[in-house]
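pls ignore typos typing on phone
zinc ion + seq
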Amino acid sequence: MAERVIIFDTTLRDGEQSPGVTLNMQDKLEIARQLERLRVDVIEAGFPLSSPGDFEGVSAIAKEVRECIVAGLAHAHPEAVDACWEAVKGAAHPRIHVFLSSSDIHMAHQLRKNRDEVLEMARTQVARAKGYTSDVEFSPMDASRSDQEYVYQMLEQCIEAGATTVNIPDTVGYSIPEEFGGFIRSIFERVPNIHKAVISVHCHNDLGMAVANSLAAVRAGARQVECCVNGIGERAGNAALEEVVMALRTRGDLFGLTTRINTKEIHRTSRLVSDLTGMSIQPNKAIVGGNAFRHQSGIHQDGILKMRETYEIMDAREIGLPSGGAEIVLGKLSGRHAFKVRLEALGYELTAEEFSRAFAAFKELADKKAEIEDVDIEALIADELRTIEETYHLDLLQVSCGNELIPTATVRLIAPGGKETVQTATGTGPVDAAFKAIDSIVGVPNSLLEFSVKSITAGIDALGEVMVRIEADGRTYVGRGADTDIVMAAAKALMNALNRLLSVQRRVGGDAGDNP
Ligand code: KIV
Ligand code: ZN
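k done
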């Protein structure tokens, strides 16, 4: 049987360190549930000591997820290790991930400690973690810029102290594949007790080589890869999970290795992470970009029609693309049954209440749009599920605008307890007017950082999807909305962001802390 590569997902920890991304507790739980469906081996759920919000998130995920190892991150300090254990201890399979810098530049300028002191801290905190759980991972941060002799020594002592996984981070994305693979190979030769641990890698993408470095490490014997969905993460991001997994699968002839991943969940996971983080996926992104399975040139189209493999190395169905690219179209005559069958084929499991809401929204859309494609259904479901956690509900929006009119919007919101409030405002355009009216009812000062509109399908009756990013009290919140009317889509997106903001404000201490 082929050996397996452990997929360690850090979307909720390193991924959440992407500039501008903040996930609330519901978002984190939703992503964790989807990662479990995707069958990742390890979910790194957060850095519990960094903030009360992170602690709560890790502990909620630990209690809910049963099939994956749930890891928490801790720097090599007793308080961090203790907090990490408190947060992960409810997990079916808990892991403590201890990290400490090993490069001279970090030790001298950040830790202000000498090599012996750092070695002692690493050993002691790994041993402390081991007192809590048998599953302990250790990372010498900035390993790729460290003195390799020192890294060998640190790994040996941490394995001795109880680490069962040793992770080699290319923290600043400095390595080149051949060099990084060589470093991993040398660890097998130079660390005498390495057979007692799994070698993992954690590569950043500053030079665009995170995936290539991870795969070079796998070729050299690493058996855990740390990665993020859509390649998000600190600065230029981490190795993209979908790229690592599909490279191992598509080039099984070369690697001879497997993963546990259910690749049919890749598309859905990617879309969910993009929606909740507000980080759009570039169209030419490998595996999950909008163009990844599209063919433009006549010669390519001709080849694909004759035999798909002429220009495709993967089948879109393998990553769970709805209908594998083929068009299945519903319309206003489609009934509950057809809609349900299509939802099931797309992998949605809705409760009866969610289904009723989704079906009502589908019928409403079908009245405006002749052909409802899979991508429309995905947008519509995302929109419906988003509205469940509302504090304020957008009940009515009416706008008037034109070159001879002052853009004016009237909105009616329903507050908790059912109180209706109506407000009218003018603005530079209909969206501005609608936002001012909404803001004056909700009454939470915020500023709009980003606003983008995209069309889900082609055609004048297409659904428009709006993403907004707002800022309040130093935190950012993303909201999305979809509708055939883009002013309505924009208003829904702002409501979604404000409802997220209100839910974080209700939770005590959801402040961002010091992440690595
Ligand atoms: O990039 C890095 O070094 C990290 C460690 C905490 C593993 O994220
Ligand atoms: Zn990292």
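The first strand starts at residue 3 and ends at 4. Residues 14, 169, 171, 202, 204, 234 surround zinc ion (ligand 2) (CB under 6 Å). more later
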